Amino acid sequence: MKKFLMTAVLGMFALAGFSQVKWDARLGVNFSNLTGDGDTKALTGFTLGVGMDYGFNESWSLQSGLMFTSKGCKEKDAYKARPIYLDIPILAAYKFNISDNTKFVINAGPYLAFGLGGKVKYDGGGDDKCFGDDGWDMKRFDLGIQYGIGLELSDRYLINLTGQNGFIDVADGGDAKNMSFAIGVGYRF
Predict the structure, then answer these.
(1) CA 68 to CA 73: how far, in whole Å?
(2) 77 in any annotated domain
(3) pTM of the full predicted structure?
């Protein structure tokens, strides 16, 4: 897993030598839950990181990034589970002008996520780790689809609405998968 992550990071920096690559910083709020588990409710979290946009032409580009994202869920009068992931989306994006300084963006593609940490806090007191044998023993790897829409204002400011649906159960023996929606802003360098 470390080799793959290092390869992905180095690949993104290798693309930086091309003039079509644009970098940005992003920040947002997300609402996450687990699908397949009817008792849980959405939990508010954060997303923070850097993004990359490699333009093939005026309309099509490849978008990726490294995003620190909190996901999870809560169950009333029981617990709040808040795992932290490093998300790496690999998205195809289509852009078109809606005015002189504004582009509308539609993107979709797979994402990879690696569990970094997080805690489960119980309403009665106490907590556990999300990942590891001495906690909830959630799976550290997640894979799914990401999709979104957004605006690029003056080629500097970004506004995004993003959704993710995981394909992998978060724990062995369950049927719960990550699902989240995020609203974010960004600044392109």
Answers:
(1) 17
(2) yes
(3) 0.86
